[in-house]
Amino acid sequence: MSNIVNKLYQNNTIIYKVILFLVATIAIVYLFPKGSHFKYDFSNGQLWKYDNLYAPFDFAIQKTEEEIKIEIKEIEANSKSYFVQDFKIENTVKANFKRRFSLIKESDSLSITQINNLSKVGESIINTVYKNGFLEVVSQDRVLNKNEIIAIRKGNEVEDIVFKKLFTSKEVLELIRNNLNKVGVSYGRKTLLELLTKIIKPNVSYDSSFTEKVIDNEIKNISYTKGKVASGKLIILKGDIVEGKKLAVLNSLKSESESQVWTESNYNWIILGYTILVSLALLMLLLFLKKYRVEIFDNNNKVTFIFFNVFSMIFIQTLVIKYNSDYLYVVPLSILPIVLKAFFDARLGLFTHVLTVLLLGYIVPDSFEFIYLHIIAGIVTILTVSELYKRANLFISVAQITLIYMLTYFAFSIIKEGNASQINWTYFMLFAANGLLSFLSIILIYMYEKVFGLVSDVTLLELSNTNTKLLRELNEKAPGTFQHSMQVANLAEAAANEIGANSMLVRTGALYHDIGKMINPQYFIENQSTGVNPHNDLSPRDSSKIITDHVIKGVELAKKNKLPDRIIDFIRTHHGTSSTYYFYMKEKELNPDSDVDIKKFQYQGPIPFSKETAILMMCDASEAASKSLTKPTALSISNLIDKIMEKQMTDNQFLNSDITFREIEIIKKVIKKKLMNIYHLRVEYPE
């Protein structure tokens, strides 16, 4: 049992990666839409690049969304408006008229003939109004004109009439006045007018719920097909243009094929296919890290960070696709290479971005267009986004990325449609929104630094400020070491720029590489301003230990002050496994008869494992050794640098740093040139 536990403990990093790989694969497969993929890729206006296609089975030709929308609009425009007639209102009005008119008859001094005439006129008006109906005033947008046929529900019966036959309030008032003009008594006319206008109420109202119900029923009965294709019938010939009826038939075949493939019996097979595709992509990412980015592969925190970003991009994109695929291009996938380049390097950023886009290309519409757009945008991102600590750089880069999106989409559109008139200009707004959202990368970088403990160029800029607490303390306690670090930083930055390494990282690392000398500054010659060398009172072995311990002390100081691991790497590796050769030779002189173990005079390492740490080792050794030249000349400086580099290469100090001989030669030239400028001779001024 203990052996199993020990093996698990020894291989815990591998076990963690396996678990991370499985969890990421399952999560991404779960996000994928539950549907199959049609085996042919086509779009409107393109040539059919496959062999002649025959119908594999009987299927119906589906109507397009545009055709269905047109049908729905026609149904809504041509459907009848339904009104309801209330007979109770008519009876109530007639009863009210008789009751109120009897009161008028008793109070007015009119003759019986006049009263009867008024009564007949009033009853005639009421009968005329309610014969066709008095329409209630409503906001009715469906009624376009007076000649429209409408339906009136009278109990269980429905009667079609012309809309203009219904009385409106204005028409009822005109009817009352016209009929009352026939009455001779003016007083009676006025009294009857007031009475009728008060008691006559609308008895016809618009029945919106019934009208909508009828429209909904008609819409439900719409046929979503417009024909049938028999099995074996030719659909399209190789080389034909996909358009019109052929496009409709192909879309119908695609829809039917996907619905037939995605069945319960095939579910597990399709999930297996998804799993294999996702697993291969994630496996390629892990293999890339293991082969070309060993330091990242060995760091589970960094591997988790990369997988988290890949999953996040896929998660956001699939959410948008499920919600509304029209907003497909609003997701700023360029954030992924921006973030990865900020923390790691361009090559890893582009590789991860391409794999992510390939995975997404399987679930998005127009996959080739999607993949091409985002890969081109990713390449532009990698080429343009640099030095994020300079505020203008990101603005310029995002503007270029957005422009590339727009140009590429424009090219695809004119290829598909044959002209620019059918371009969907909404997409240009989506690309602009995509560009704006890309600025979120600054916020994400800051958050990732805090959560994952990573370092970006923005943080490096802050750390390289010589007014930081640690560098200010170095300047106060060990001013000579501080000046040495500044010189090394300048040399290293220039060398990094020449070979395309991270100049900000190597400069910051150079500023902190010797902070361990603050513990015993007087034991380092650059800080010995009094001319007294304390090493004279120590044995060579003790002196060597004090010198080599500045690396360990530096790492301890850096961790205490919470410097990032990427900066601590420069402190650990800037001497590699080299030796304090001066004290080694002195020990041999003092003990000529015994064998002196050089390992006791060596630094603990490790050796540099990146171009940046290798550059620092070269610049540090070169700058320190150049101070030993009594009369520095171009030749002496050149010979010295050659000897130092040759010694470091012989000792295999650059074995793990992924740096080429050509790059080493370029770095040598930069160092020689810079040192010659530092030690140039001035003309002798007269006294």
Q: Can you offer a commentary on this structure?
A:
The protein is mainly alpha-helical. It folds into 3 domains: 76-218, no CATH class; 293-452; 457-678, Hypothetical protein af1432 (Orthogonal Bundle). It is built from 28 helices and 8 strands. The strands form 3 sheets. The chain has a 4-stranded mixed sheet with strand order 5-4-3-6. A hairpin with a 2-residue loop joins strand 4 (149-154) and strand 5. Helix 5 runs parallel beside helix 7 and helix 13 packs antiparallel against helix 14 (346-361).
Question: What's the SSE blueprint?
Answer:
Layout: H1 2-10, H2 12-31, E1 53-54, E2 59-62, H3 65-78, E3 82-85, H4 87-107, H5 112-132, E4 149-154, E5 157-162, H6 169-180, H7 186-199, E6 204-206, H8 208-220, E7 225-229, E8 234-236, H9 244-261, H10 264-292, H11 294-297, H12 300-323, H13 335-343, H14 346-361, H15 367-384, H16 391-417, H17 426-438, H18 440-452, H19 457-463, H20 469-477, H21 479-499, H22 503-512, H23 540-560, H24 565-573, H25 581-590, H26 611-626, H27 634-650, H28 661-678
Parallel strand pairs: 3-4
Antiparallel strand pairs: 1-8, 2-7, 3-6, 4-5
Helix pairs in contact: 2-10, 2-12, 4-5, 4-7, 5-6, 5-7, 6-7, 10-14, 12-14, 13-14, 13-18, 14-15, 15-16, 16-17, 20-21, 21-22, 21-26, 21-28, 22-24, 22-26, 23-24, 23-25, 26-27, 26-28, 27-28
Using only C-alpha atoms, the radius of gyration works out to 44 Å
Portion in beta strands = under 5%
Tell me the total number of β-strands: 8
Low-confidence stretches: none
Our count of helices gives 28
CATH fold group of the largest domain: Hypothetical protein af1432
Structural class: mainly alpha
CATH architecture of the largest domain: Orthogonal Bundle
Number of domain modules: 3
